[in-house]
From TrEMBL:
This is Ketoacyl-ACP synthase III. It comes from the Bacteria. Residues 132-209 form the Beta-ketoacyl-[acyl-carrier-protein] synthase III N-terminal domain. InterPro entries: ACP_syn_III_C, ACP_syn_III_N, Thiolase-like. Signal peptide: none annotated. Keywords: Acyltransferase, Transferase. It comes from Pedobacter rhodius.
Amino acid sequence: MSATINTVIIGTGSYIPENIISGNEFLNSTFFENGSRLEKENSEIIHKFSEITEIVERRYVCPDQLSNQIGAKAAEKAIQNAGIDKETLDYIIFCHNFGDIPLNSNRIDVLPSLASKVKQQLGISNTDCVAYDIIFGCPGWVQGSIQADYYIKSGDAKRVLVIGAETLSRIIDPHDRDSMIFSDGAGAVIYEGVNQTEKKGILAHKTETHALHHGGLLTMGKGSNPEETGGNAYLKMNGRKLYEFAVIQVPQVIKKAIDKAGLTIEDVNIVFVHQANGKMDTAIMKRLFKLYNLDTVPENLVPMTISWLGNSSVATVPTLLDLVLKGQVKGYNVKEGDVAVFASVGAGMHINAFVYRF
């Protein structure tokens, strides 16, 4: 068997903000829905929210931190973990949705690109290291990884750094109870092209965009408080419809990726799925197994961090991977030969997945 180029992970890193935001932080909030104040006690709203999403805590960045800065922190850790010279990176792909948002500004800054800002912070002088951003909703990091695979397998690149970072605490509506789902964080992964006869690394991938009928499930919109003026726009989602969409569509995309890899769900040892909503992810996995006529999802297949990290959008999957690889998610690890699925869903509506052999 002749050698082929495999896209393999050689380093990971993450940055988890220090500020822990529990449900109690929202006890004095004023929540509105459809222009009317919610009559339920906040303690009841918060409890019900935690039951549905499984989120107990989330993380927010410090007042002086920006997305590019926490992305750079995760990248530094990934470079150190890989043990490589940073000047050997061919691409830096920074995946985000809102760029840099200074505290209390609600204004998005993407000039220059966050990837360029990271390259500058890392002190990389190699002009052949190309730095650019991807805006692809929550599935951005997965899509960045797919692009890295294309670059590497084409022979155009040897090493690609893919970062996912977001500071959603700066763009959420404090009067919208759905805002309790969102958080801040950053994760980074370095991929390398390796010539091997054995098929490893990224085996197959699949991406879909369901914009025609579902593009409005996650959008920017005005605040929930009818008395608010100033024209600020906030992250808004149709939670119920998004849940229904994800539970039906995401399993089908994952199966298509597994099919392309010539495998079946029983070959999969671990699933790194976007940490969007605990119960939604559970429902997605149950539906996926039903596509294979299986009624039971094995235990210790899907590591979860949403209960204590919340939903940090593009950062959830690379952060989860980094924590598992470094033994920081109890009951989960990977060994050589294990097959993993990486999958996400988000604004667009985009869905993507790739299959990976360690």
